[in-house]
Design brief:
alpha/beta, 2 domains, 12 strands
């Protein structure tokens, strides 16, 4: 499949009193047209910053310091603000974390949705209202006309998430980035959102980048997965292969931390904690927490190596990972 998005060597820094802090350090991945790529990792691994870098929605003081972001062959980092505004929302849409906080509490659903339709499709009046109803039906909301008249505080968490997905779909994007779309939802609603995203992918041919810490969601939805740690993708490949035969100790730790893995339901945490980004470890960034750590891990950063077709890993001792 032809990549619709290619991210190569992406590096992003945030300011600090001690100077720029590298939050992303050479991120590489690609997404084929029509597939779902999952980005997983602990909080602070750089998943959301990666998405914000792709859309150039970073805080003003943050800087993209290197790399390329190719969308359908065009480097987004070479576009000016006006050109990038035509990409955002039209070609690439994003579902942000915490949908209720992303909705304007002063506006009814219909006003915000009609603003989106006017901005990106030049629809207004009865035509915009008709499309608004169709979008809410498409995301599975009952009584769509009633929902349009409500304010965000009158909606449940699951309804807010469906409204946000409708906003993201309003411009018929080619690529949808979903940042933790099931966070803070109860288990039943999480399943409904997962099924909704899967259906939209099948019916609309959507390409999706799914950012999540929920490995069960990745297993259910994604074709491929990228495992992020401290601003790098340390392993990526087909979902089934990585779940069945992970080759990076960090991936093994993430998979082992699922409560469903252990009959007693006990959580097996990865030892240690994510290091302070201002004091990035030398060599392999995972070495302070790695059970396979040797002196070479401190001295040299591992190269990316091919484990199999489409499966790559950054680890000196991946062949020893069970």
């Amino acid at each position: 499949m032809t990549p619709i998005l290619q991210v190569r060597g992406l590096s992003t820094t945030f300011p600090s009193p001690d100077g720029p802090v590298p939050v992303l350090d050479g991120v590489d991945f690609e997404v084929a047209d029509g597939e779902i790529l999952g980005l997983v990792g602990e909080s602070g691994s750089g998943k959301t910053v990666t998405a914000l870098s792709v859309l150039q929605l970073l805080p003003p003081a943050a800087r993209i310091t290197g790399g390329e972001i190719l969308f359908r062959g065009e480097n987004l980092l070479e576009l000016d603000r006006r050109q990038m505004n035509r990409v955002r929302g039209v070609d690439i849409s994003m579902i942000f974390q915490n949908p209720r906080a992303s909705l304007n509490p002063l506006y009814r659903v219909e006003k915000t949705l009609e603003q989106v339709l006017w901005t990106h499709r030049r629809l207004r009046g009865d035509e915009a209202r008709k499309v608004s109803v169709e979008l809410l039906v498409d995301v599975g909301l009952p009584d769509p006309r009633g929902v349009l008249r409500r304010y965000p505080h009158e909606l449940s968490g699951g309804m807010c998430q469906r409204v946000m997905i409708a906003y993201a779909l309003a411009s018929n994007p080619r690529l949808l980035i979903a940042d933790e779309p099931t966070t803070a939802l109860d288990v039943t609603v999480q399943l409904q959102i997962i099924e909704l995203l899967g259906r939209l992918r099948r019916e609309h041919g959507l390409t999706l980048v799914l950012i999540t810490h929920n490995l069960s969601v990745v297993a259910e939805l994604c074709d491929r997965v990228g495992v992020m740690y401290l601003g790098r993708i340390v392993e990526h490949g087909p979902v089934l292969e990585i779940f069945d035969a992970p080759r990076h100790p960090y991936t093994v730790g993430l998979l082992g931390s699922r409560p469903t893995v252990h009959p007693d339901g006990e959580l097996r945490a990865i030892p240690g904690q994510v290091p302070d980004l201002r004091h990035r470890p030398s060599g392999c960034v995972f070495h302070p927490r790695c059970p396979l750590m040797k002196p070479v891990c401190i001295e040299q950063a591992p190269l990316r190596e091919a484990v199999g077709p489409g499966h790559e890993v950054e680890c000196h001792f991946w062949r020893k990972v069970a």
